[in-house]
Write a structure and sequence with these properties.
This protein is an alpha/beta fold. It is built from five helices and six strands. The protein has a six-stranded mixed sheet with strand order 5-4-1-2-3-6.
């Protein structure tokens, strides 16, 4: 089964937050019925990169069985950095930087664990033009940022 995950983080122009992050999962069951799950994970005082990573992680952790997964994100950090060898080096081999700590290692470790049982492909979406689901993720993330504590977890059948 192919599951598509669309993610977004809303930094609201401030590197220290506030921000929110949103995830939408779409998949077809064995009968061909399309299912959609939407998550607005709420307020997070952190950087946009961390919010994007959290959005991906929440989507992967929501899957209760192994799947083929396509992750769509407008963040090059998520879609390109994860595929580079140094992520695996920092996380799995414990590489160190001479200039200080490596950022987001905790989230990269969680992401590696979340994707371990799935076949995952990351796809960069340049902006949101033409990607209705990414627009919805942007809306969820922005709502979370504006609402500070808003949490949405809706299971919808289309």
């Amino acid at each position: 089964m192919l599951v598509k995950i669309y993610t977004d983080g809303a930094a609201r122009g401030n590197p220290d937050g506030p921000g929110g992050y949103g995830t939408i999962l779409t998949y077809e069951d064995t009968k061909g019925t399309l299912h959609v799950r939407e998550y607005s994970q709420g307020y997070l005082r952190t950087t946009n990169n961390r919010m994007e990573l959290m959005a991906v992680i929440i989507g992967l952790e929501a899957l209760n069985r192994p799947c083929r997964v396509e992750v769509y994100s407008d963040s090059k950090y998520v879609t390109e950095a994860f595929n580079q060898h140094w992520i695996e080096g920092w996380v799995k081999k414990g590489w160190k930087r001479s200039t200080g700590p490596v950022k987001n290692v905790d989230l990269w470790k969680r992401l590696l664990k979340a994707k371990a049982s799935h076949e995952v492909r990351f796809i960069w979406v340049k902006g949101h033009a033409g990607h209705e689901q990414n627009e919805r993720c942007d809306y969820l993330a922005t709502s979370a940022a504006d609402g500070e504590n808003l949490i949405i977890d809706e299971g919808l059948e289309v």
